[in-house]
C-alpha cells in the first residue's frame, strides 16, 4: 500500500548517493567489533542473549564479585568499542561518557573496564548527559589520549530549554582536560579514530529530519567566540542546532557500516548518510544509539523516520538512550528480527 511513509522511504532510497568533496579518510575494514554499553538509563537483571547471523548481544558480565554492587542507570550514553582487524590486538575506543562520574566509574569497575586501556575517545556533542562522566577518567586514561570533538561550541555553557533565563545545563571545562594531558582534537571534518573508526564530521541535513534541540548555548562562556561559526559569535544566547555533533562509524569487512549515533540531534538518517559519505561505504550493517525521537518530536515524525530507516536497509537496529517508545514499539513490531533493545552492560558482538 502506498502511504506517505513508504513514499518518503522510497524517495530516500532512490536518491543518488552523495559524497563529500575530496577523498574520504582512511577507514580500515575490521573483522570483529564488540560494543559495551557503559551508560544508559535502561538497566535490567533479566536481559537475555540474542543470536542472529553476524550478531550476538550478551547480557552484562560482572567483574565485581559483591552482590551489593549494581550497575547504575542514568540518563545519558556511553559505549566502549573494541575493534579488531585480522590477528592484530583489539583497539579500545570510548564514545561519550554518560551523566555522572560516579555512574561511569562504578559501571566500568563492575564490568572490569580499565580506563588505562582506552586508546582514543570521541565526544559526540556538548550536552552534559554525554560529557558529565568524563572527570572520572581524568588522571586514569593515559596522558596524550586523543579526544575528538566536532567544534568549539561543544565547550560553550548551556541552559536547559531555549529561554535566555533558563537553568544551567553545565559546560565542559577545557582546563581540566589540558591539566590531565588529554589531546583535544577539534575539527568539523571527519577524522580517523584509533586506526579503526571514523567520525562523520559535520552532519548536513539531507533527509526531511529537522529535530528540535531542547537547549541553548552561551557563546563566550567556556568557549572562544572567534572559533564559533559567524552566525553565533556575537550572540549572548544561541538556540542549539547541534551543528558540531558527531557520529562514529566502523567498517565491518563484507558487511558494511556500524554507525553509532549517540543522540542524533541532527537526525539519525542524516547521521547515517554522513557516515556513508565520508567513508565511501553505502551498505549499513547496524545503527546503534539514541535516535532523539522524544518530545517535542511528534508521532508522525517518528514514523517518518522509521520509514526512512527501513529504506537504508540496515541488518540490525540497536536503539538506546533518547530513542523513545514511539519509535521502539512500531520498529520492533515491524522488524522483530532486526531491532533489539540493549541495557547497561550489554555486550554487542559483530563478527
How do the strands and helices of this protein lay out in sequence?
Layout: H1 4-14, E1 29-30, E2 32-39, E3 50-52, E4 55-58, E5 78-84, E6 91-95, H2 101-111, E7 120-123, H3 128-131, E8 146-149, E9 157-160, H4 174-179, E10 183-186, E11 192-193, E12 197-199, E13 215-218, E14 238-239, E15 248-252, E16 256-261, H5 268-279, E17 284-289, H6 299-312, E18 316-319, H7 325-334, E19 347-350
Parallel strand pairs: 1-15, 6-7, 7-8, 8-10, 16-17, 17-18
Antiparallel strand pairs: 2-5, 2-19, 3-4, 4-19, 5-6, 9-13, 11-12, 12-15, 13-14, 15-16
For this structure, the quaternary state is single chain
Order of the strands making up the biggest sheet: 3-4-19-2-5-6-7-8-10
Strand content: 15-25%
- Sketch the topology as an H/E string, one letter per element: HEEEEEEHEHEEHEEEEEEEHEHEHE
> CATH homologous superfamily name of the domain at 28-247?
Ribonuclease Z/Hydroxyacylglutathione hydrolase-like
Shape: globular
Describe the structure using short key phrases.
globular, 7 helices, 23% strand, alpha/beta, single chain, 9-stranded mixed β-sheet
Amino acid at each position: 500500500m502506498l502511504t506517505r511513509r513508504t513514499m518518503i522511504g522510497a524517495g530516500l532510497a532512490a536518491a543518488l548517493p552523495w559524497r563529500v568533496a575530496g577523498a574520504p579518510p582512511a577507514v580500515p575494514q575490521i573483522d570483529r567489533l564488540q560494543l559495551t554499553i557503559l551508560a544508559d538509563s535502561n538497566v535490567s537483571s533479566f536481559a537475555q542473549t540474542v543470536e542472529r547471523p553476524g550478531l550476538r548481544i550478551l547480557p552484562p558480565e560482572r567483574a565485581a564479585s559483591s552482590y551489593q554492587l549494581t550497575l547504575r542507570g542514568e540518563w545519558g550514553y556511553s559505549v566502549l568499542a573494541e575493534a579488531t582487524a585480522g590477528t592484530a590486538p583489539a583497539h579500545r575506543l570510548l564514545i561519550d561518557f554518560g551523566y555522572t562520574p560516579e555512574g561511569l566509574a562504578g559501571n566500568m569497575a563492575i564490568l572490569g573496564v580499565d580506563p588505562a586501556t582506552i586508546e582514543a575517545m570521541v565526544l559526540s556533542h556538548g550536552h552534559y548527559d554525554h560529557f558529565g562522566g568524563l572527570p572520572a577518567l581524568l588522571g586514569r586514561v593515559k596522558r596524550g589520549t586523543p579526544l575528538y570533538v566536532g567544534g568549539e561550541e561543544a565547550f560553550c555553557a548551556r541552559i536547559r530549554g531555549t529561554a535566555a533565563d533558563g537553568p544551567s545545563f553545565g559546560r565542559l571545562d577545557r582546563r581540566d582536560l589540558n591539566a590531565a594531558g588529554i589531546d583535544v582534537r577539534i575539527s568539523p571534518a571527519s577524522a580517523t579514530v584509533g586506526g579503526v573508526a571514523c567520525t562523520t564530521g559535520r552532519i548536513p541535513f539531507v533527509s526531511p529530519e529537522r529535530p528540535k534541540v531542547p537547549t541553548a548555548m552561551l557563546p563566550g562562556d567556556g568557549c572562544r567566540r572567534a572559533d564559533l561559526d559567524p552566525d553565533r559569535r556575537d550572540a549572548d544566547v544561541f538556540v542549539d542546532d547541534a551543528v558540531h555533533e558527531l557520529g562514529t562509524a566502523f567498517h565491518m569487512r563484507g558487511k558494511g557500516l556500524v554507525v553509532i549515533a549517540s543522540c542524533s540531534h541532527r537526525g539519525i538518517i542524516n547521521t547515517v548518510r554522513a557516515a556513508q559519505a565520508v567513508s565511501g561505504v553505502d551498505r549499513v550493517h547496524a545503527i546503534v544509539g539514541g535516535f532523539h525521537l522524544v518530545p517535542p518530536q511528534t508521532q508522525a515524525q517518528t514514523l517518518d523516520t522509521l520509514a526512512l530507516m527501513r529504506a537504508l536497509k540496515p541488518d540490525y537496529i540497536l536503539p538506546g538512550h533518547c530513542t523513545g517508545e514511539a519509535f521502539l514499539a512500531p520498529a520492533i513490531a515491524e522488524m522483530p528480527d532486526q531491532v533489539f533493545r540493549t541495557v547497561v552492560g550489554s555486550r554487542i558482538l559483530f563478527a
